[in-house]
# Entry
Amino acid sequence: MTIQKIYIGGWFQRTTLHLTEIWDFLNRGKSNLDFPKEKLSEARASLSLSSVSRESGPLEYILVKTKKEIGYRIYEDGLIILEKDFESLKNDFEAIKDYYDNKLSKALSLIFSKGAPVPKELVNIKTILPYIVTVDDATKKETKQIFKDFSEEVYSTLTTKNIEVYHAPGIILINNLKDEKLVREVIESQIFFREFKSQLHRYLAIHRILWEKIRTIKERGEIKGNEVDSLRNELSVYQKTINLIGARIDQMPAYVKTRQKITNVEKIDDYLQPLFQFKFETLLDTHEYIKHLWGMTKNYLTSAIEIFSELQTKSTKNTISSLQLITTIGVVAGILTYLGKDTLPKFTSIGLIYFFLLMIMTWVINSIVSKFFKNKKYNIEGQDIEKDIK
# Structure
């Protein structure tokens, strides 16, 4: 058995504009945004770069080689593929993962830290990236030993044209795919498809969480007036998250269509479909499902916000109406007191005390009325939406 290379990678929605920003950073340590030069220099130095070049092809990409014997390609659509020649699997795994997690990801996070924020539901998600190992002429015993050494359990084995692909949660092993260009295309497609589906699955999970939070608020039955503002603000936070993720979902089909166009279908389909069991159409169908589901979530939230906006208006209106009534009664009473008198009252200390007592009484009455409406319970009424998110 000959072990060739180890790969890992990821995909983040990017464009050729982002690629130019990455190029400026990697090539010259610069950014058009107002980042401190010290931070840029420190982040770039941590990458241990030996060469950086910008290459053309069906998709433009940046080719990077490092002093740590790790190379990688960053494509304009956001796909990142890291590779390392085999030395020792355990050490290679640790080295390539450490570089990806603690060097490259942190550097890219820095230069993309300005602009539309990443929803907090996505910030702390740590994706477990399986290592992809390419080998030649491995026997079943040898492949089994590799997985055993790393306590990995194979859950899928696919074979076609003498090529074998073993899937475990942390390792994907490809045996006897000796065409280097085809290996790269297969690995790039595998990582893109995996990351695309992984993002959609995260959005499905977030949808379920947000739906339950909104449902819990809507199904409380009744709330106090002083709770309306806080619950309305909570729904506004959810609305921000839904809008940000919704924009990401809307962008995703363009990346699938681009990858579909540049894939040499006639040559690669024989390998991709039997080995990895995916199709571009399947991705787009799954995306369409999530898109409609997200639209339903957005409508559900909008209906909840409308209910609380109405309650907010009703609570405020009731309070103002009551205060207006109290004020009107006071003014009318004062006017009636002096209608039968020929002269205005003289200013006295007793009158001043009376005036302040009247003001205090008015404040107390206003406070009681305000507290009454804050503690008054309002019914939450609204048409619910049947949920089907299995």
User: Anything to note?
Assistant: Residues 189-390 form one domain. The first helix runs from residue 16 to 28. Residues 199 and 249 are 9 Å apart (CA to CA).
